[in-house]
Amino acid sequence: MDKKETGKLGEQSAASFLAGKGFTVIDRNIRSGHLETDIIAKNERNIIFVEVKTRREFPNAHSRFGRPASAVDRKKQMRLIAAAEEYMRRNRETVGELIPRIDVIEVYLSPETDDYKVLKILHMENAVHR
Q1: Model-level pTM greater than 0.85?
Q2: Burial class (CB in 10 A: 0-12, 13-18, 19+), 82
Q3: CA nearest 52: which of 91, 101, 108, 98?
Q4: Fewer C-beta neighbours within 10 Å, C or N terminus of the chain?
Q5: Distances (CA, A) of 13 to 18, 81, 95, 108, 117
């Protein structure tokens, strides 16, 4: 399984996870120029812009990459903020009074390449802000 397929499976898992928490996924993989948002979802109170990071192993002292959320550096955070602001501007009528939030979801999949099994999902609410 390549990196792109792993990412897709992670995003699918994150979308299902959010649905289980009462969110409705309204868009996925939204691009606006060089800006991208993996998942946009809403509930009765919030509209959330979600960055999904997927790994095939749990981070430990010997992990090459560390925690997936650590890949959301300041530059990536600024892009996520800009993408969320752009979406809010373009969709004022549909967004209404919903409170925007940027979350990060880490998805850990089984390390076996032929097997797709979610081992753990960590949801960090309001992980990115100005």
Answers
A1: yes
A2: middle
A3: 108
A4: C
A5: 9, 23, 24, 10, 10
